[in-house]
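Reading is simple: each integer encodes one residue's backbone shape. An example follows:

___
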Amino acid sequence: MRIIISGAGVAGPTAAFWLSKAGHSVTIVERASVLEPIGQNIDVDGGALRVVQKMGLHEGLKKLNTTEIGTRFIRNDGKGAYASLPLVKGRTVSPTSENEILRGDLAMLLCSATRDDPNVRYLLGTTIEKIGEDQGAGGEGGLSPPLRVQLSNGDSEIYDACIVADGQWSRIRKEHFPAPTVVDKNAYIAYFTIPRTSVDQGWWELYHSLGSRVISTRPDAQGTTRGCFMKMPLNKEEKAVWEKASRSGSREAQNSLLKETFQDAGWESKRLLEGMVDARDFYFQALKQIRMPTWHDETTGRIACVGDAAYAPTPISGSGAVLAILGGYIIAGELSQLQAGQHPREAFEAYERNLRPYVEEVQNLPSFVPGVMMPRTWWQRTLLQNVIWAFAKFFSIPYFQPKETRHDESAFKLPLYPAFEKEGEAGSRMVDGNAA
């Protein structure tokens, strides 16, 4: 089949790799004219880590590790930590994972596995402008007609299927699917990169300011520091202001709001606000989940959403990249199993049957998240800090440290597809993102 994918983030290149392995021809269109390693810290675990291993990219993943050594919580006066949760190999005490990587680095690693693949074509600086049925072409075996796809570069091409992997607010999804249910977690977050200083010691550091404000810094593999502001509005008036800034898309308005909100927050707020202004990778996001009644379109049955376009779980779930990798692998796997005369709709339905239960489990966050970690008053912060301190003290004792579970595939059993096992798990074309 000829398949077009919108989006060269995490899900798109993953799907392209496996579709090519099954012999399909893939075109990836990406709005950005240059692929850059931007984005914040994520970790790859469970079945997603297994997919990366099967792609022959695990060593590349480890080389791009952010070097984060653990998580620690900063005192109210900003001088030192009152609790630390260091990374312990084989244990799951710390929020820091053994496989921490920047989302942008992960996307680049996945893209590197297909950039020289003769079955995969990248069109950068290009978007899908219109998708319709090609009535003049007719469908294979009497099935519905294939897709006629109009691209922003002026080309008009025919494809058997389209995979939508272009993010949480996908325009293609808006045009071809019913409006999704948007679950608002009532929080806003801003990410950006700042220069690293001697203050940054390789930890993920979190500081809880009053007024439901959180500041954090994290190391990366590029020798810089990733800064983050997170805020929950305190009332309807604040909510309206933050939502307006989010929807505006105006960096000037968003920077202004962050300065006003965090100028007196304490700790490293001044340094982060100053660095934020010049950061070239500034990103402002409302924490909202996307939930769709179906992940493939009901009109043609040839368009399907994957990753954040289908089921954005929000960054607080810690599973966005994991779901994107799993989605890319499974949708490609189900398409690889189609026989002559079968419609892509059948593969998309199987993809959804396989993955939806796990997606719903991941998205089912408790109602008190993220609010419990964003105290509004001094007594709420004191209570939270006492709980964190006690937790860190208890699990500092090796006997009580639980064994690592994040890499356990028991939460989601990865399906195996015959078309992917022919050449061995690592494949023969790529090894850790480099041509073999």
Summary: DSSP finds twelve helices and 19 strands in the chain. Residues 424-436 have pLDDT under 50 and may be disordered. The CA atoms of residues 70 and 86 lie 4 Å apart.
